[in-house]
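Posting for a labmate who doesn't have an account.
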Amino acid sequence: MRIVVLCSSPYGETGCAVAARMAQSGYVPAGAVTLPAGDRGTLLRKLGQWGVRGSLRYAWSKLAPGPADQGGVRNPHLETALKHAGKALRNLHEVARAYGFPVFTCAGQNSPAAIAQVRQWSPDLLIFTGGDILRKELLAVPRYGVLNSHLALLPEIRGMSSPEWSLLYDVPLGVTIHYMDAGIDTGPILLRRKFPHAADCNSLNDLRNRMIAFGMELLAETVAALDKGTISPLAQADHGKDTQFFVMHERLKAEAARRLERTRQTSLAGKANA
């Protein structure tokens, strides 16, 4: 099974961790395609997600040298995947050197240069970990398709801020591994699983970090199952309404955080009474 990983930045932890995890599970990428570190769209998304201070702290943790046992891992639940030879791999080039695969940097994942490089690698699967909205020409390159880990159950919750919208709409938290198509989170489903650790999460940020790591493990499981021929895609059921959501307003996010905290407190009370 030949895979290629698509990354939004050489310093994106999720892309680095997914590439490393695939290699650790026996599927060393044929290559990885990344947008440059200074890509405007990626920078704007991170500024919106983390703010200026958080973004600067993250950049410093990746660029500044640190002790051998500290790699500036922002998401602690990805640390196991990023650890190699006693230290945390801090960027995609370090991951590539550790596991022996090439990295191609491009101005756009849909660019002719990127598509030509991906075709040269002849992948069975692309694994999307962030970046551009993929166009049909790139989606058609891999033999099987392009995998995405969506942090919600599909088709109930599509689009942005999906863990938070799941909490507000009382939809069970979960992760869906699906093939990407021309729509937004509308492609065929390969694996759909409820997230079992919501009661352990002490914030929305912790929830998202844990769900990203959970999705990474489901991606590894899906790739292995596709290689063995033990899993098949299923078209998404008609949910009867448009379920695409957008970035959540801070007031609604605060309500989602309160609901997550209620889940945690209910779990703690249940354990105390057991």
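Reply:
Got it, the structure tokens are right above this. The mean pLDDT is 90.
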